[in-house]
User: Fold this.
Amino acid sequence: MSKLDLFAFVPFQLNRLAAEVSAALASEYQDRHGLDIPGWRIVATLGFRDDACSAQFIAQCTRTHKSTISRAVTGLLSRQLIERVENEDDRREFRLRLTKKGRALYQQLVPRLLTKEREILSCLSARERENLAAALGKIERHLNLIQGSHEVESSREATSQTAG
Assistant:
């Protein structure tokens, strides 16, 4: 019977790294601003985009369960960090966007999180960071993971064209 060295098993390594990096970043948005991970994912997704988007989009691109996103949306709405806006294309659907207060929080957090990212990756040379980003992107593409808002919009358009 062959053995698996768990500590050399890439899925395990990625999971451990993700947990450690997430914990390191959480000190910025959780301890200072009371945002949990799903709340931060919503704020980050909305802050990255110039337009409103659905909770379904956020769940899909962040790989977070819809019910977890839904609970976080409720909390962020009550804190007035996000707001619902009617979808002009489908009046039954609401989209989400940051409020002025939410945008200010996002703008305050981004530099701090980018600094944390630099600290975490400081053990790598510039070339190694580029190679890591390229390798991760390649794996994401191989697994058909959304890598940007343009991909969701493109897939949504393709789906509506084939459905119609």
Helices lie at 10-31, 37-48, 55-62, 66-78, 100-120, 126-142, 149-163. Confidence is low (pLDDT under 50) at residues 152-164.
